[in-house]
Amino acid sequence: MESKKLWEADQKTIQKSHLVHFINWLNKSYQLDLPQDYETLHQWSVDHTEMFWESIWKFFNIINHRSYDAITNGLDMPDTRWFLNAQINYAEHIFRNSTTEFPAIISKSEIRDTEELSWKELEDKVAWLQKYLMDSGVEAGDCVVGFLPNIPETTISFLAANSLGAIWSCCSPDFGADSVVDRFRQIHPKILIATDGYSYGGKNFDRKEVVAEVVRQIPSIEKVIIVPYLESEHDASSVPIPIGSETDKAANKYVWWSTILKKNKNAPELRFTPVEFNHPIWVLYSSGTTGPPKAITHSHGGMLLEHIKYMAFHNDVHRGERFFWYSTTGWMMWNFVQASLLAGATAVLYDGSAGYPNLSALWDFAEEAEIHHFGTSAPFIVACMKAGLNPAADHSFVALRSIGSTGAPLPPEGFDWIYDHIKKDVWLCSMSGGTDVCTAFVGGCIMKPVYEGYIQCRGLGVSLLAYNDDGESVLDETGEMVVTRPMPCMPIYFWADTENHRYRESYFSYYPEVWRHGDWVEITKKGMLRILGRSDATLNRHGVRIGTAEIYQVLNNFEEIEDGLVVNLELANGDHYMPLFLKLNQGESLTEGLIDKVTKQLRATHSPRHVPDQFIAVEDIPYTISGKKMEAPVKKILLGKDTKSTLNPDAMRNPESLEIYRKMAEEEDFKKDE
What we know:
The chain is an alpha/beta fold. Among the domains are: 105-276, Rossmann fold, CATH 3.40.50.980; 539-667, GMP Synthetase, Chain A, domain 3, CATH 3.30.300. It is built from 21 helices and 35 strands. The strands form eleven sheets. Strands 4-3-16-15-17-18-19 form a seven-stranded mixed β-sheet, sandwiched between helices. It has a five-stranded parallel β-sheet with strand order 6-5-7-10-11, sandwiched between helices. β10, α10 and β11 (254-256) form a beta-alpha-beta unit. α3 (38-47) packs across α4 (49-59), α8 packs parallel to α9 and α15 (378-386) crosses α16 (412-421). The longest helix has 17 residues, at 119-135. The radius of gyration is 25 Å and the shape is globular. The mean pLDDT is 91.
């Protein structure tokens, strides 16, 4: 059945886009004859991998302190290295956009009013912190880490470290001490920049003891800079962490942020240390819910090229526009927001709960801050839809050009809600990628229409295919999402992963020399896509594969249901048992009538095999801190497998929720021994 067209850019907008400019430039610079057709451009970009990425380098006038000797050392994954021996700096490309015409950063939080930070103020603050880091002995290759909320100080910290060629890593302050230590201890940081606390949902959380515990367990930390977020005033001569050891006090290990940023003096000159293209830029982490978090390390140049490409060609971000994505600092989307500065845009930050004081908070902020590009998660859009919000009734959203959605597949109803209740002429950019590459494999395209329930395109330079069980590329049917050509944003390694064993096991163990991402995807003949859930959480019922997203999309149609989680248990006797766990909205109960309605819609929308064997009401659905449903751990628990030694509760948003499923596993054996 043909999907409904919801939006299409007018020709004036398309002709002004970066994509059209790029096609015209390519034709002239490379003597090509590419039409103004995205799918033709995409095919060219994956057929000519090296030429395409070199064209990105040239089109965006990458500042190189030493030119490259070769574009790659070969295209065999995962050993590809890019722009060999070139020397660049990511932060330098941000500050070349410095201007007095518009702010660099706009920020707001639950405890801070909306503030603007000029490019000059940003540069001065980064320069002061850079000087402190240099005076503390930080050099290219050292690790500087943050335990910080999504506030301007975090961006300043990243840019100061990056400008020196230091390696950045960050954890959100809602992480517990053990989770922070599990991550940072792997990379032996020299400097920790930490908050005294954070605010969420109208409550303040003091984190000074967590900071002290992290410092106690990671001996490589030589200096600790404390950002006073909860405390507006302090005694600059005092030790910020009162339980710091006498040795720490004597060594002046702790310092207040304000003593570094000297307001009444002229800032030193901001310097940029060139580093080799494949030098690490930052370390991101896997969720860590089922084992030690993987320390995913990306390259300085790879992130520069990918981010500047995606911002320009897939979000069509223009100079002076305001780019926002709701995120914590522990999610890769925080890093992605910083890339808006590469495009000469204003980065818009928000710290706090998306639902405080109510679900309208972010939409109110979008209007107030005159945001052009508004990014959020699919679950947030669905929550707004189920709550019956209608922001269009009292907001005009004059500036709003695009709405980005990621974190989970956005159901067709979510698409419709955006156009019915936010803005009829907005560009909805559903996208999907991951921490693994710190970008999106698939996302927006200004040259193509938006169809209900579909992602518009595969990214330029992304050779993404759907593989069937025989490892053959298929269209218009569900397959395993794979990437068959290398990308500069793929990890250079996992930290301390000897001979890339863990790296290869994570992505290349299933198809040799082909990246297997772990999602089910359907690619249409028109190049549009649907993500159908994680392939490692696939419901394989008697040989029929069911994407969990298909079931969750049906649940979105019921106001009685707040959330759900489904697993399929393969039992010892060859049977299958598929329970569906439902978190109901307040005041609702799991009645036979509701079960009957859900059953009928699952049958009508999909098939009888989509109907679960049992509906079970639960108090909560478990999520990781980064917002992923924990289907695989729940499945292991219900099958009686021990997860307590491998599942870290600090990496969860709501660890207490798992006790529901552990109790079920103890009381009901789910036929696993029959």
